[in-house]
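Entry 14. Structure prediction run on the chain below.
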Amino acid sequence: MTPFDLVVTRWGCRFLGRTFPCSIGKGGFSSRKKEGDGATPIGTHRLVGMLYRPDRMARPADWALPISPGDLWSDDTGHEDYNQMVRTPYPFSHERLTRADPLYDLVILTDWNWPYAVKGRGSAIFIHAWRKPRHPTEGCVAFRPDHLLWIAERIRYQTRLIVQP
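Output returned:
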């Protein structure tokens, strides 16, 4: 581990010498992640992208990409686009990235079950803003919005998400 790693434990997340409170999945930690179990997968995950809402915030990093109104994330285990970003119109099961709430105003993408998704192993393990302090997610890791922005501005190419039980 390096100081640039985001290390998530049941007590919070360590990054660059600081500890931040965070939320994990309502299913706790899991070494056998499955679609819909609400668990946060244990292991070391690369950070593969950053998305942000340009109508709600400034670009947090030079490599962050804007979320457009038609951007979706496929969670349809029966479709070839499973666990990929897709666009409308998309008639299969998906999650909208432009939400009315601020949860996805800033999203850091992990390589969980990506780029070659195994059907049913789980999709969309993101790092995003929490709904309220320590409120469980569907499997993602979530932070207070200002903490998330602070982290996003300091992520480096070598930064990994390390989830430890």
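The chain is about 5% helix and 35% strand.
Filed with the rest of this week's runs.
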